[in-house]
Amino acid sequence: MTRYLAEHAWLGGPAGLVHDVLIEVDDGRVTAVTPGTRGNDATRLAGLTLPGLADAHSHAFHRALRGRTHAGQGTFWTWREQMYALAATLDPDRYLALARATYAEMALAGITCVGEFHYLHHDPDGRPYGDPNVMGHALIEAAAEAGIRITLLDTVYLTSRVDGAPPEGAQRRFSDGDVDGWAARMGGLQPKPHARIGAAAHSVRAVPRPQLAALAGTGQATLHVHVSEQRAENEACLATHGCTPTELLDRAGLVGPWLTAVHATHLTDLDRTLLGDAGAGACFCPTTERDLADGIGPARALVDGGCALSLGSDSHAVIDLLEEARAVELNARLHDERRGHFAVGELLGAATAAGHGALGWPDAGVIAPGARADLVTVRLDTVRAAGYDRNAADAAALYAATAADVTHVVVDGRVIVRDGQHQLVEDVPHALSASVKAVWS
Ligand SMILES: [Zn+2]
């Protein structure tokens, strides 16, 4: 039994913000939560303690692009050429080192679970490795070494365009030929206590219509798809199929409560209705969407229509779920020239329970008896949040604090970050520097 005394805690669900909270943890689970407790021998957590943050959309290797791709001109499509050049350099050892360092950075930011949208399956010539899942196994191992949970979203990627053109260049590493080949390979992946296996279809660009239907036939419980991130994808889909990407997914039988539509930026009213009525989720990645000049998606309308909203750091231009969460609201303000679209609790819920739900961990993302014991403590005495209002400590963390203010992180009852120091990866900046240098050498 471990006992924590949180100065403030945002518990998730209707409980919201409470003060002087005794949180008791045993065998990786929260066993009791008692607000209004003072003076005992519990470990004191100064600041605001949140449930574990879930990064529901990650491509770990994109971390090596940070600081190297933002300054130029162009579009998503020119950025993609730089990303493909990076993808061509990776082997299992470099992938493991880069993912371990990236996931360690996530842990320092309070991320207790990552959804890794993984399509870098084969060798640079497109041939399977001796272990055909060696790259996926590297990601699962990386998460273990960084002390976080992972849902490996093993991705179907078969074509280079909506019209079914074959994969080109680096894309050859991504393809299993067809859905049967994909299913046969990914069937060799095994869940672990810290790892679950989910599925993804890269996009309607990368999976042709008959193969989308074949994927529906495999009955995936967790399925993520990049949807309408770019207007060009919509235009190509309309030209080839006479419908939007969301409509195409729906016709293939892929729109349901198992689906998370990633980005969901350029949607029609019908798209939003299809997703909402089906109880599908939407995962926004605002720091990447702004970096790649994607546009601003209809977050409020999606949530009002019935979609659960989760968040991802995607290309890792930034790894900071507080920044992703507030950006949903702040982007909506820029778009509508009006303030106050989302309540604080809605945005923190997107960063915690909704993200875990989208990744197949429904027992995480709240601080409540029976839940996984994930605790993320954010200091509020730094220059960013100092002077905060005690009765708005959750808003202070959301709108003023950053990932750099995360001091203490517990994952499944185990302390992974203490006093801002990762307990498993000794020097995370060095691990990042060395692993990024290795892929560009
Ligand atoms: Zn992505």
Mean pLDDT: 96
Number of helices: 14
Ligands bound, unique: zinc ion
Strand order of the largest sheet: 3-2-1-4-13-14-15-16
What portion of residues belong to β-strands?
15-25%
Number of strands: 16
Helix content: 25-40%
**Structural class, please?**
alpha/beta
Quick one: biggest sheet? 8 strands, mixed
- Described by the principal axes of the CA atoms, the overall outline is globular
Radius of gyration: 21 Å
Distance between the termini: 47 Å
Quaternary state of the chains: single chain
As residue ranges, the low-confidence spans are: none
Query: How do the SSEs run, as a string of H and E?
Result: EEEEEHHEHEHEHEHHEHEHHEHHEHEEEH
Describe the structure.
- By secondary structure, this protein is of the alpha/beta class.
- The chain contains 14 helices and 16 strands.
- Strand 6, helix 3 and strand 7 form a beta-alpha-beta unit.
- The protein is globular.
- 57% of the residues are buried.
- The mean pLDDT is 96.
- The structure holds zinc ion.
Secondary-structure map:
Elements (H helix, E strand, L loop, with lengths): L1 E9 L6 E10 L2 E6 L8 E9 L1 E6 L17 H12 L4 H17 L2 E8 L15 H13 L2 E8 L22 H8 L8 E7 L7 H9 L5 E5 L3 H11 L3 H7 L7 E5 L5 H10 L2 E4 L1 H6 L7 H6 L3 E4 L9 H16 L7 H15 L16 E4 L14 H8 L5 E6 L2 E5 L2 E2 L5 H13 L1
Helix pairs in contact: 2-3, 2-14, 7-8, 11-12
Notable traits:
globular, 441 residues, alpha/beta, 22% strand, binds zinc ion, 14 helices, 8-stranded parallel β-sheet
